[in-house]
Amino acid sequence: MVYLSSPQRNRSVAIGKSGWYDSSMARILAIETSCDETSAAVVADGRDVRSNLVSSQVDLHARYGGVVPEIAARAHVERIGPLVEEALGAAGCSYSDIDAVAVTIGPGLVGSLVVGVMAAKTIALVHDRPLLAVDHIEAHATSAALVTDAPPWPAVALVVSGGHTSLYHVRDFLDVELLGQTVDDAAGEAFDKVAALLELGFPGGPVVDRIASGGDARAIRFPRTWIDEPHDNFSFSGLKTAVLYHVFGTGRKYGSVAHLSPREIADIAASFQAALVETLVKKTIRAAQRIGVSTVVVGGGVAANSALRRELGVACERASIRLILTPMKYCTDNAAMIAVQGEQLLRAGRIAGLDVEPRGGLRRPAKSV
Amino acid sequence: MSELLLAIETSTRAVSLCAARFERGATQLLTQVSRELPAAIPLTSRLIPEIQDALAVLGHKAADVRVAAFSRGPGSFTGLRAAAAVMRMLQSTTGCEVVGVATFESIADAAFEWLESDAAPPNARSIERVVVLAPAKAGFVFAAAYSRADLSRADRCDSDDAPRILAIDSWRGEFEAPFAVVADARIPQNPDHTSGSRMLPAILAIPTAERIARLALRRYARGATMRPEEIVPLYGRKPECEEVYGARRAEARSRRDE
């Protein structure tokens, strides 16, 4: 298949065995395996989500209090085949009905990414379809477009999950500038670690959110790292350590929470959450104001946090900024958002070679600390 | 009319692939194309393009593959998982049959073939038993024993034959002598580890896709193909690790079923 740019219509078209087709009508099969969710989706026309299946591994990792890369990679191998077939079935189509294959190329756990990338390459090879290599965080940043009437760009996008905490300036789907990101723990990771030390279970985000609702967010003043710094990077390891020392005593990394009452645990959870949320909200609003955009979009699993949603709503309203919260089903890792971004790559003619490699690491921000 | 077999070997850094034609019901490969991937380039980058090229040399496309075979391990976890993902999707997209061959079985097969060749010393030809060793880090080795009679049956069950992880200082005691040893070149050549055993050339310990293809064809002819859920690597970890993983998985499944 040969891809050509069609300036007349400002989109790419493909020449296949069956003739020409308009890529804006493309049906894209997407695969996402960047961390601990195996996901496959079929999306038509960049918006019509025909299927979006997610096989969660939470149960496998729960006992460890976090994602174990080796276990995640194994589970992806076991689940990828049936899940792709199920996604096609749910969309009422077969491999031959698919126009392109999109896959998360990174960042993420390399062992997990390899499974999805090799699976996608094999489908692309067998069915002679274009391969679309999608950046996972950019897909989170633009996933809000799945539910808006028109693309909400330009916007500042906050992507906040167990693996990432990043701020982007999104000018268009494929014009995404990384403004800043966490230099240590992701926000979701901090939730998991604090939940683990408070012996609340895994995943930490939902359980801390729930426990915090019964606590006093002003009970303990935990640090808001870099909250007033002019750059857009985040750091949550100091916050996590402050909680650790508060619970076990300064300098102590291990201990028990047996001495804490349920009320004290709720206060700690609420105070930790308040510190983290305040940092996210303040830096996001400041980035939007500095750049001069009037829209903020939020994606990633931590976007489900009730305090974050509430505080961002208040702050955006005060700053006259439109807030778009990505629906929950597209906040956690999912293949539909990969298909959306893949469709944009297809339109732009940015087809990946079959030699494209998964990449685990994060990009560095344009403006470092 | 001939059919198409594709075999890939990704359990070590010496990644290779073999595309070959065969007659239905036969156990011999006909025309074949073999490729070795450069060790300096990640297999995740080169494997699929090399498959495409090798099949093209035979005038075929991936959709024509009738039998896909892979080396199941033990070995590089990333390599094994990449191969398993390719096999799963080949089966899903083309409906081809998939055959898995234990990596050590292919090494043992190479060892017995060498013992029967002119290259082997005459007094070595009577050796009936070979122990295959590969490094497993931290003072351990993967080890498995194969007898000439077992291999000639060509119907060994992979999952039952997963190599064990044994301490490098004490693996000998686990196997009944006499036997020859074919050991990965990375295993320290300590005489205490191998004394009393005939050491076969280390090059035999490098598995190849061509041999995987030959063994897979024999297995395919006997109907020993894999169901989708069986297409997973033989990881070769300590039994207690596997037990923990198995228990976690069963627990998670039962929780989901509830």
Can you give keywords for this protein?
heterodimer, A: 369 residues, alpha/beta, Nucleotidyltransferase, domain 5, 2 domains, 5-stranded mixed beta sheet, 11 helices, 13 strands, globular, disordered N terminus, disordered C terminus, B: 258 residues, 7 helices
If you had to describe this structure to a student in words, what would you say it looks like?
The complex is a heterodimer of chains A (about 375) and B (about 260). Chain A is of the alpha/beta class and about 375 residues long. Chain A folds into two domains: about 1-140 and about 335-345, Nucleotidyltransferase, domain 5 (2-Layer Sandwich); about 145-330, Nucleotidyltransferase, domain 5 (2-Layer Sandwich), CATH 3.30.420. Helices cover about 40% and strands about 20% of the residues of chain A. Chain A has helices at about 60, 70-90, 110-125, 135-140, 185-195, 205-210, 235-250, 260-290, 305-320, 330, 335-345; strands at about 1-5, 10-15, 20, 25-30, 35-45, 50-55, 100-105, 130-135, 155-160, 165-170, 175-180, 295-300, 320-325. A five-stranded mixed beta sheet of chain A has the order 6-5-4-7-8, sandwiched between helices. Chain A has a five-stranded mixed beta sheet with strand order 11-10-9-12-13, with helices on both faces. A three-stranded antiparallel beta sheet of chain A has the order 1-2-3, with no helix packed on it. Chain A is globular, with a radius of gyration of 21 Å. Chain B is an alpha/beta fold and about 260 residues long. Chain B is built from seven helices and ten strands. Chain B has helices at about 45-55, 75-95, 105-115, 150-155, 190-195, 210-220, 240-255; strands at about 1-10, 15-25, 30-35, 65-70, 95-100, 130-135, 140-145, 165, 180-185, 200. In chain B, strands 3-2-1-4-5 form a five-stranded mixed beta sheet, with helices on both faces. A five-stranded mixed beta sheet of chain B has the order 8-7-6-9-10. The longest helix of chain B has 19 residues, at about 240-255. Chain B is globular, with a radius of gyration of 19 Å. The chains are: A alpha/beta (about 375), B alpha/beta (about 260). Chains A and B meet through helix 2 and helix 3 of A and helix 1, helix 2 and helix 7 of B.
